Amino acid sequence: MAHAEIGIFGGSGFTSLLDSSDEIEIDTPFGPPSAPLVTGEIAGRAVAFLPRHGRKHEFPPHKINYRANLWAMKEIGVTRVLAPSAAGSLQPNVKPGSFVVSDQLVDRTSGRIATFYDGPATTHVSLADPYCPQLRHEAAAKARALGIDVHEQGTVVVIEGPRFATRAESRWYSQAGWHVINMTQYPEAVLAREVALCYCNISLITDYDVGLEGMPPVSVPEVLKVFRENNERLRSLLFEIVPAIPAARECPCGAALDGAVVGGH
Q1: Catalytic site residue 209?
Q2: Which of 27, 118, 149, 207 is catalytic?
Q3: Can you give the residue range of the structural domain that contains 11?
């Protein structure tokens, strides 16, 4: 089986990354991932790419097989995951076209399968800090070096979708002080933690959400237009981050399961 050390998920409008690559089909205990994994190299580092919505964006956020996607990455040896995504802004200073390297998330989804561990051993991982500090540092530093308008921290609120938020919901999230609104960070982030992967979200801000005063309703064409305009910047950023990731994991992510299992023996 092919091997990769770094995994990259593609979000809305971001369905390809590697110019020279191979495809591998992986069957997981949770069914097939969203698409075959595409493996290749960036600056000598083995990378696997997977568009989380599928190659034709056939999987809406609530229908993505998040467990299969993360399991497939883990199966081929991935220990670090970079997870860019399209997102809306909840704050005036977080402008469309800017990037946010998230450090916190709030789950507002409903009914999604959000764990690998259904028993008999009960497993409680800590999600106090959902995102890998080592990867976040590298992502923010490389974004600054490229001249990208980047926010080095921010809270993403994850809604169920596929609908966008109402004005009242959006105002609530904004008044809570949260920065970014998205539909895919949960359960993707927690599942990465459950299999002890380092995980880093880079939110590409495509629009202001409707809770901000005077904002028009969010539209799919506008979201995709901004994402397409910024895809090359995102690609350049990922190609800078990958070779900068230290070989050694100097973060707590790899020890996520230490002491997390209760009973079942």
Answers
A1: yes
A2: 207
A3: 6-84+100-158+181-202+227-262
